[in-house]
Amino acid sequence: xxxKHGPDLKRATPEIDRCPACRxxxxxxxxxxxxxxxxxxxxxxxxxxxxxxxxxDRRALTLCRKIREMxxxxxxxxxxxxxxxxxxxxxxxxxxxxx
Length: 99
Hints:
Helix content: 10-25%
Low-confidence stretches: none
Mean pLDDT: 85
């Protein structure tokens, strides 16, 4: 057992997955209007594995971290690979144009 004093330095957030009931929209169509999903309480995400609703005190932090993770993934996909970049220079950085 580790000796530990005080709270964790980083708040723990559960792994989340898309809500299967509302397909991550947070709402479902009633007879004449949209209603909040009862499975995820309108968040669109549930705890992975158990399918329980994300605790309200951790919901904002968990969704914020998920958004940040998805933004980083989209930036990595959108950025061109470094190997393809051409600086129009020859071997060893020379400027020989072949004239």
